[in-house]
Write a structure and sequence with these properties.
- By secondary structure, the chain is an alpha+beta fold.
- It folds into two domains: 142 residues, Nuclear Transport Factor 2, Chain: A (Roll), CATH 3.10.450; 262 residues, Neutral Protease, domain 2, CATH 1.10.390.
- It has 15 helices and twelve strands.
- It is elongated.
Length: 411
């Protein structure tokens, strides 16, 4: 017979606290078991956490338990999202659960999560976890502490996670501190006191950590919005993954349609990481990328000169691409010039007020696709008017004039 699909939400699961046993659903009882195990793991009680785990799930759960202790996690919650209830047997199959947690030195609003799939069955009065696997389909970045041995290191503003045996930990932490110190004077917004860096040995390990190809990558700032959140939610987790094999290289690497030193990529991605607490679904891609280029000190004069000679900037319009959440690579030099113009002409404080203005949008009802793009475009026009008293079309005109003046000055 076919199983019955039961969809659960975290709020619903957590509110069911009937401990009498009479009439309780399997979901309620299993959720209580998961909540008790979460509490055990928070307290470091590994034996109690593993007690209801059967052999088929033991390897996965042991790795999670050991890693959680090593990573010194804070609050932990494991909540059912969906499960298949067998109509005749006392078991739940393909139980999808979100493992949500905090890192103690990081801000409380920097929430991390990954997903597990359980098979749970009842033996007597107890529920037992029969099988367990990590599900990376919807949440591809799985914390390294949950999949293998892990080490940690700290500096004043960074927590680093990495596999045992990795070299140059002190060197990368010093580099990160210098990079942060360089960008702080350029930002008038409050930043997180501590950031998370996941350090990969090489491109292969980098790919393992990000859940995709990693060859040639230097670093990436990663953020994840609450999958059940809204358009105004800030990113739940904010972290940076670094390829240690590449970051100290002295060779130029491709980055956003140009070749740069790896440390400039690192600085650019750290800018994204620092600003991510202010990002929303409705923040246009050009705002985010322009800000990161400003923080990394990028000034794309070579591209400005080539684009001027070829006339490509005359075909670019903020009114056209302000609706996009990401930025096409060919637009980077143009956006770099626009943000350079705004910060040099009006100062950085005004630019960051403009950046933060995208956090204040309150959507009406469900919004998808074209509607979100229209919101981004409308907000860009409105906020340019509020903070700079110009339109997207006027910003185009001034950006092109800025580029021509910079090219002429450079000779």
């Amino acid at each position: 017979m076919a199983a019955v699909v039961v969809v659960l939400t975290s709020a619903g699961c957590q509110s069911e606290r009937d401990t009498g046993g009479g009439g309780e659903s399997p979901q309620t009882m299993v959720q209580r078991l998961l909540s008790e195990r979460s509490s055990d793991l928070e307290k470091g009680a590994v034996a109690e956490y593993l007690e209801p785990v059967e052999r088929g799930a033991l390897d996965v759960e042991k790795t999670i338990a050991r890693g959680a202790l090593k990573a010194k996690l804070g609050t932990i919650e494991v909540v059912i999202q969906q499960g298949f209830v067998h109509p005749r047997k006392p078991e739940l199959d393909r139980v999808r659960v979100d493992f949500t947690y905090l890192h103690k030195p990081l801000p409380d609003d920097n929430v991390f999560r990954f997903r597990l799939i359980y098979k749970v069955r009842r033996k007597g009065v107890e529920w037992r976890i029969r099988d367990a696997e990590i599900d990376a389909r919807d949440l591809p970045i799985v914390p390294p502490w949950a999949t293998g041995p892990i080490e940690t290191a700290r500096s004043p503003h960074f927590l680093a996670l990495f596999r045992p045996g990795l070299r140059d930990i002190e060197k990368i932490l010093k580099m990160a501190e210098r990079a942060r110190k360089k960008l702080v004077p350029r930002v008038t917004l409050p930043l997180d006191d501590v950031h998370l860096m996941v350090l990969a040995r090489n491109g292969r390990e980098f790919g393992e950590f990000i859940g995709g190809p990693g060859d040639g990558a230097v670093a990436i700032a990663y953020k994840l919005y609450n999958p059940r959140g809204g358009l105004t939610d800030h990113p739940e987790n904010r972290e940076m993954i670094v390829n240690m094999e590449e970051v100290f290289s002295l060779s130029l690497v491709p980055h956003e349609h140009q070749e740069v030193m790896p440390r400039q990529v690192f600085q650019h991605e750290l800018g994204h990481l620092a600003l991510s607490r202010y990002d929303r679904f409705t923040t246009p891609g050009w705002i985010k990328e322009g800000a990161a280029m400003y923080l990394s000190g990028e000034r794309r004069l070579v591209a400005w000169k080539a684009g001027t000679e070829e006339g490509v900037f005359d075909r670019m319009e903020f009114a056209e691409f302000s609706g996009e959440g990401s930025l096409d690579g060919i637009l980077y030099p143009y956006v770099n010039a626009a943000v350079s113009y705004l910060t040099e002409t009006y100062g950085t404080r005004r630019f960051w007020k403009f950046y933060r203005g995208f956090t204040n949008f309150r959507p009406s009802g469900a919004m998808r696709g074209a509607a979100i793009r229209q919101v981004r475009a409308d907000r860009t026009r409105r906020l340019l008017g509020i903070h700079y008293d110009i339109s997207p079309e006027e910003l185009d005109r001034r950006t092109r004039a800025y580029i021509k003046k910079a090219v002429a000055k450079a000779g």
